[in-house]
Amino acid sequence: MTKLSNIMAVLALVWLTSCAPALQVSFDHDRSVNFRKYSTYKVEPVKSDDKDPVLNSELNQERVKNALVDQMKNRGYTYTEENPQLVIRYFTDVQNRQETQSNNTGYWGWWGRPSNTYTRNYREARLVVNMVDAATNRLVWQGWAEGEESGNNRKQDRDAAIRLTVSRILEQYPHRASQGYNDEATSRR
Question: Looking at residue 131, what DSSP letter applies?
Answer without folding.
Answer: E
